[in-house]
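Sample A.
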Amino acid sequence: MNTSGNSIGFLDSGFGGITVLSEALKQLPNENYLYYADIEHVPYGTKTKGEVRSYIFEAVEFLVRQGIKALVVACNTATSIAVRDLRSMYPFPIVGMEPAVKPAVQNGNGKRVLVLATPLTLREEKFHNLVQRVDTEHVVDYLAFPELVELAEQMVFDHDKVIPVIKNKLSAYDISSYKTFVLGCTHFPLYKKVFKEVLPEYIDIIDGSSGTVKYLNHLLEEKNILNTQKDSGKIKYFDSGKPVDNPQRLNIFNRIITEL
């Protein structure tokens, strides 16, 4: 098994992790990347924990065989159920995602926070421990929103089609009582512009991408494996272990990265 390489692996169930990869390209433009979209098993958030664990381990083994020096589990659901075990299995830095609850609470001045995530993320003990640790004023609410993952994977980005879905999902909530919305799934920042159309201007919309990549940068520096040579930030895409060579799909990946 090849546990060394010069690329950073990214893993998600589908398109969502592209939002984190886009941030990595901004902060770490000289690195090379391997992006694994597990389209055969998307979405993760509505499946059982055991099923998702097996998919994750298979995906990571594939990336390891390609030669990676670090791994980003660019999926909140996958992180919550597998990142601890992955860190015990592999010697390279492994960075996961978690909903940005802590900064939302810290910056909210006691006002309410709504966390949007997948059903599996919200069921996991890791999420509830996070909320219990930082939500001392009991201001955090959360809402499962698997419909957004499905829209993203169907490549539905037309605002006129997405806005009714978001409005319907939030219809039971008093939006005026919230200061911050946390996009707790990496698919959701694909719709950040739509949320800004739907929500009042005073509501902050945040996700964990920037903090995740900053931590990745820190680990690469700490391990002395940060690429300081100017490179082109090469990216190779894989769909459940198969190289993506379809020009249309490649254009979709690249367009999403450019527009974020």
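Sample B, a different protein:
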Amino acid sequence: MYRKGVKNIFDFLIGLCGFPFFLIALIIFGPIIYFTDKGPIFYNANRIGKDGKLFKMYKFRSMYVNAPDIRLADGSTYNGEDDPRVTKIGKFMRNTSVDELPQLLNLLNGTMSLIGPRPDPPDWLDKYPEDIKIFLTVKPGLTGYSQAYYRNSADGEEKMKNDAYYARHCSFMMDVKIFFKTIAIVLGHDNTYKDTSNEDEAKKQIEELRKH
């Protein structure tokens, strides 16, 4: 009942209530993002949605235009504090999660939920073990179990296991706990960046970028 009906209603109402905040952020940050390097304000990424279907996930752009895609050994995207691909305003938006506000539009169009697994890029679809794919039975979320309790510190394998756990135990009370835990972790700036100290290949690519 909750997962198939009430949760969808809550998502739409939250998206509707949050829409004015998105507009305020757009008015404040939109011009800054654009005039930083005369690029687009939004970053519209293809992501894996419910039942494995692809959808467009909206974010405020936090990187310079045409920034290269750098991955860690587990296939996840590089997210180090020293990333030169990120603009100054982009770093602020990431630290405060302002860059995620456009995903309120995904709540309104029904492609995302407030709480759910964070969506992965399309090339991850073939990497999911069969016992993990259960998390594709729920909509991806603006925040989720793994995001709330680990934010960006969990590696790809751990994230998938956390997402599968959420899909098996999804409930109203679990979503409430995740919601308030997310607020606490964002305000505390906990685990904003991954530990990339052992990622030699990623570090090498970052050093090359700094030289240009």
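Observation for Sample B: The helical segments are 2-37, 88-96, 104-108, 145-150, 156-169, 172-187, 200-210.
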